[in-house]
Automatic annotation (TrEMBL):
PROSITE patterns: MFS (PS50850). The chain crosses the membrane at residues 12-30, 50-68, 75-92, 98-117, 138-156, 162-186, 207-229, 249-270, 275-293, 299-322, 334-353, 359-381. Gene3D superfamilies: MFS general substrate transporter like domains (1.20.1250.20). Residues 1-385 form the Major facilitator superfamily (MFS) profile domain. The keyword Transmembrane applies. It is found in: Cell inner membrane. This is MFS transporter. It holds the Pfam family MFS_1. Keywords: Cell membrane, Membrane, Transmembrane, Transmembrane helix. It comes from Flavobacterium bomense. Its main location: membrane. It is a multi-pass membrane protein.
Amino acid sequence: MKNSNYNLKKILPILFGFFIVGFVDLVGTATNNIKHDFNLSDSMASTLPMVVFLWFLIFSIPVGLLMNRIGRKKTVLLSMIVHLIAFLLPLFAYNFTIILITFALLGIGNTIIQVSLNPLLSNVVQNNKLTASLSAGQFVKAISSFLGPIIAAYAAKEFGDWTLIFPVYLIATLASSFWLLVTPITENQTIHSSSFKSSLSLLKNPTVLKLFIGIFTVVGIDVGINTIAPKLMEERIFGMTSLDSVYAISVYFIFRTIGSFLGSIMLSYVSVRKFYITSTFIAISSLLALIFADNLNILYLFIALVGLSVSNIFSIVFSYALQYLPDKSNDISALLIMGISGGALFPWLMGLASDSLELQAGALIVLILCCVYHIYLSFFVKKVEIETVDK
């Protein structure tokens, strides 16, 4: 039975774990710095994100199986150990091989924590608070993602060494590990045994498959808008430089953070399904507007609205999936986190679309199609709610 103790002493250390989750977004800033530090070609520099996100595909289901054996809290703590090793390595040596190992370990550690942290949170909150709590976690992650580039830039400017961000991350990970370690959490007992095949076979369930595609596509929107926002600025605004265009990403992250914060509050009081429907319509309307926008302020406005509207979709879809099959939540979590690796596919699809039209509008169409799927899914989840109640 779910632990009914809904108190901050148990929730806060888990929410702080989402701050560690946000460390994976350092890869964007790190790629540019590492390319400069080691005189890498674009193709060689692009291997860094691949080194990180490949592990979401490889390790998600095995981590889910491990979590069934050792428990959720121990699995989260294992991820902390992997993160600590990753952040220690650059303190002893800084070369391309060490950096590849560091970011591979960051990808592995982040896969482990993302698979285990969401279901661990479900042990300390009630079902009707789960979506809001997951949005609160995404808010904490968004703060971490937003602060990472700022800390790296400050370290580079003041001390001439962007890698000083690693000891900062090391201290934060140590604090998170200790806080969680000393927090007693009663976990749901796993009442079934799993295998890789049985976990993957959950995708045969039409509802699980639809929710998996929901995660796959919302990650695609998130990665995609980060990729296309600067390009849109350079294409539409005369004289816009690559240095200035990156502010569009900051605008997206700021409003994504605001959206996660608002969602963590509003989703405790409003219908999750209505919130989801409204969010998807705002997202698709904003993306459609971006196809025609050619004014700097208008571009910023609709990029901000995309960030605001999609900020809670990941949490909403994830919470529906965890509540749909609560006795298999470990396996469900592993499957959905595996969908994060699919985010690497969308920049490639967007590139093909923009090349075919010779305009960034082609890339926006790919993102719009992702949003269209979420319009469908936002109406479909009414059926999921009914099925969950029936269970």
